[in-house]
Specification:
Arc Repressor Mutant, subunit A, 2 domains, elongated
Length: 212
């Protein structure tokens, strides 16, 4: 059985203890524990684990920790372990680069195997959330651009993400919060898109990106 090295970050000490016990019983090596997002990032740098297991609503924001870890340590798999079944937390975590999203009512005897599955290339997600992800990809076309277009190929991944969220009806400030950017940075991305597509407003950009 492969030993998985894990860093745990959760601001509830009792929960950390239960998770540690479950992982160690399953043959994992818990090489670091912390209570904040900053702790998580630091511990990953220090211990270079296989998996970072993060709570979302801990001081400093677990989703931001996930983003920072994925950016600085792409070889470390990030899995969220949380009480939150909210769509916003789920999709923000996946956008941040998390490889899994498990609820804290997950059977603890399965936790170690779920992390091994992630390292083997499987997604780890609580069963009742899978349908929500499927629904997101089945969403009507008004919520997402259609087939890839020549216009889309001109954009960076971040520019595409900004325009996608704006096309869904989010405001500049809402996009900024969703992507952990400043509103000014969002506006800079939009200006860049308009320049690349040679259009004068967002609606013109949306039409090109939808292939209309």
């Amino acid at each position: 059985m492969v030993t998985v090295r894990v860093v745990i970050a959760d601001d509830h000490a009792r929960m950390r203890g239960r998770v540690r016990d479950a992982l160690e019983s399953g043959g994992c090596d818990v090489c670091g524990e912390g209570a904040t997002a900053a702790d998580a990032v630091r511990l990953v740098q220090e211990h270079e684990p296989d998996v970072a297991l993060l709570d979302i609503h801990m001081p400093g924001n677990g989703i931001q920790a996930a983003r920072d870890i994925v950016r600085a340590n792409p070889e470390v798999a990030v899995v969220m372990l949380t009480q939150s079944a909210e769509d916003e937390d789920l999709f923000d975590s996946l956008r941040a680069g998390a490889s899994g999203y498990l609820l804290k009512d997950t059977d603890p005897t399965q936790l170690a195997d779920r992390l091994r599955g992630v390292l083997a290339g499987e997604g780890a997600m609580s069963a009742r959330l899978v349908a929500r992800v499927m629904d997101e990809f089945r969403a009507p076309t008004r919520r997402r651009f259609g087939r890839p277009t020549a216009a889309a190929a001109k954009l960076s991944a971040r520019e595409w993400e900004v325009m996608q969220l704006l096309s869904e009806g989010l405001t500049t400030d809402e996009v900024a919060r969703r992507l952990f950017l400043s509103a000014t940075t969002v506006r800079v991305h939009v200006s860049s898109v308009l320049k690349k597509l040679r259009v004068t407003d967002r609606e013109g950009a949306f039409r090109l990106l939808r292939g209309e």
